[in-house]
Write a structure and sequence with these properties.
323 residues; elongated; mainly alpha
């Protein structure tokens, strides 16, 4: 039995992807592509070729990347010598798309970690201090109402009262929503598992990296995974990962593009996307929220100290309000 041309093509395409990932030193993606290459190699019936690929896989698993690169390069040269000529610019752009896709995945991961840090801090802030802040806002509304009643013809006092009521209601809505939908508590090992699997899911489902044919379904899974990550919902993350790992994975754009003009356009798009991500990351790292959090060495001590200060402020407001 001779392997179908598509089996051979897929095998060598996987080798090219692995070669590019070794070049950009993306260890986690290398591990993922090794699994894909193993499956592609199982579909090839030519024993000599399969043996050569097995040898490459052994080198990669042993982290002998130098040997692996030499073997891959040699095998690809043999393959290319018996297949149609491909414009060197196409190969160069394919490598560039792969490298830029890896960069974007890395930037997306960094952005997600920054957003998660701020989300976790704000969540804990609400859980530990929210009821104190809500009580303080309620007392401030009462004081504003008293002032408005004592100055019935002064519009500024009425405006202050309306502003205080609005602020209290807005905060109450946020507080109740947060308390009703808490994040799950995970152990350190579970949290590490969640982060690792979300990273893999993100690389396989990100709307900017998936082939357009699968964009709608991939986007839905990406959003679902991001929401699960924010809530520390490991069960949902595992469900999505199993679907991707054991089902038919989405084709990534870097795996399907062969047309020169499409590759040129995709390269420009990825450069633009990378710049956008750099700007988003920079904006977060220079924001007041992030700078405040970054300077807190011990969250437990911070919240304990802040709670004590708010309790003192609350007692002062009570004395003023009920004097």
């Amino acid at each position: 039995m001779v392997s179908a041309p598509s089996d051979i093509t897929i095998l060598f395409k996987r080798l090219e992807i692995l070669q590019n990932l070794i070049t950009v030193q993306d260890a986690e993606d290398i591990e993922y592509q090794v699994g894909k290459l193993e499956k592609a190699n199982e579909a090839v019936s030519e024993s000599d070729l399969a043996a050569e690929v097995d040898h490459i896989l052994l080198q990669v698993k042993s982290k002998a990347y130098g040997n692996a690169m030499q073997l891959i390069t040699s095998l690809l040269q043999q393959y290319n010598s018996i297949t149609r000529w491909i414009d060197p610019e196409v190969r160069g752009l394919q490598a560039e798309v792969t490298a830029k896709s890896a960069l974007i995945s890395s930037l997306e991961e960094e952005l997600a970690e920054l957003e998660k840090l701020i989300h976790d801090f704000e969540l804990r802030h609400m859980q530990e201090l929210g009821y104190l802040i809500l009580n303080m806002l309620s007392l401030k509304s009462t004081l504003a109402r008293q002032s408005a009643m004592h100055h019935p013809y002064n519009a500024s006092f009425r405006d202050e009262y309306e502003k205080a009521i609005e602020e209290e209601e807005d905060y109450r809505g946020t507080y109740e929503k947060t308390i009703d939908n808490p994040s799950q508590d995970l152990s350190d090992d579970e949290m590490a598992e969640l982060k690792s699997k979300f990273k893999k899911i993100s690389k396989l489902t990100h709307p900017d990296l998936v082939d357009k044919r699968f964009e709608e379904e991939a986007t839905g899974l990406f959003i679902k995974a991001k929401q699960a990550k924010d809530k520390n919902n490991l069960a949902v993350i595992n469900e999505i990962w199993e679907y991707l790992e054991f089902g038919k994975p989405f084709t990534l754009k870097m795996e399907s593009l062969t047309d020169l003009e499409e590759l040129r356009a995709e390269t420009k798009r990825l450069y633009f996307l990378a710049e956008q991500l750099f700007h988003k990351i920079r904006a977060i790292k220079t924001s007041d929220a992030y700078l405040t959090i970054a300077h807190i060495e011990d969250w437990d001590a911070y919240f304990a100290d802040t709670k004590q200060k708010l309790n003192i402020e609350l007692e002062t407001l009570k004395r003023v309000c009920y004097a």
